[in-house]
Design brief:
This protein is mainly β. It has a single domain, classed as Deoxyuridine 5'-Triphosphate Nucleotidohydrolase, Chain A (Distorted Sandwich), CATH 2.70.40.10. Helices cover 10% and strands 28% of the residues. The chain is built from four helices and 13 strands. A five-stranded antiparallel β-sheet has the order 2-3-13-8-10, with no helix packed on it. It is globular.
């Protein structure tokens, strides 16, 4: 199965998306597998579900320096917002800020739009989950989770809403902004069962060290 990223601006091609497995956060890469010398207490590095989510999909980077200035007017329906791009990126200037009132979730905050000059193409029947990069620390902004039907959308680049947590900052070219996870669209039906015997059954996960990793885990490959 193939996913294709098509760059609309040559200058951005130096910041092409990469498999998430090649761009783990530094704190995770530097972390020891165990937190004690006796190797009794494992760190999160031994958690296969966390390992999987860090390695799933692709990392999308910011393509050009963006100077962001916002004067929050939380809940008032207006926002003082300015974004500066280098010369030659004028087609992105139309993307502005959005006030908290348009999406009043949690504590008051305003929103911006992250623009990336890439098309994302997937085979028929496949969409992409757009999410902030898993376990990467970022305290200035956060791309809002969304699903895009990348097999049919025909925009020349993608615009993703993002929460603003800071008023004045610069997103540098090459900084990660999103994690892209392709998936197949399928219909699911939910079933609910009551079976109290499951609480008493023996499990490999509990009975054996690294039982899940050694006996149940399946590799996921994104190249």
């Amino acid at each position: 199965m193939n996913i294709t990223f098509v760059c609309g601006k040559e200058e951005a091609s130096q910041y092409a998306p990469v498999p998430a497995s090649t761009f783990k956060p530094n704190w995770y890469s530097d972390l020891d597998t165990y937190i004690d010398t006796d190797k009794t207490f494992p760190s999160i590095k031994k958690c296969m579900p966390v390992f999987d989510v860090m390695n799933t999909g692709y990392i999308m980077f910011n393509a050009v320096d963006q100077e962001i200035t916002a004067q929050p007017n939380f809940g008032q329906g207006t926002i003082g917002f300015d974004r500066r791009y280098p010369q030659g990126w004028n087609e992105f200037n139309e993307q502005e800020g959005h006030p908290h009132i348009q999406c009043p979730i949690g504590e008051p905050k305003d929103y911006m739009v992250i623009s990336v000059p890439w098309q994302i193409k997937t085979p028929p029947g496949y969409s992409c989950l757009i999410q902030k990069p898993y376990y990467h620390s970022e305290d200035r902004f956060e791309v809002m989770t969304a699903i895009i039907d990348t097999d049919v959308i025909d925009v020349p680049w993608h615009n993703w809403p993002a929460k603003l947590f800071a008023n004045n900052f610069t997103i540098r070219a090459g900084e990660p902004v999103a994690q892209i996870v392709p998936f197949r669209r399928e219909e699911w039906n939910m079933n609910i069962e009551i079976d109290t015997s499951v609480m008493k059954q023996d499990t490999i996960c509990n009975a054996q060290a690294d039982g899940y990793a050694k006996n149940m885990h399946n590799k996921k490959r994104f190249r």
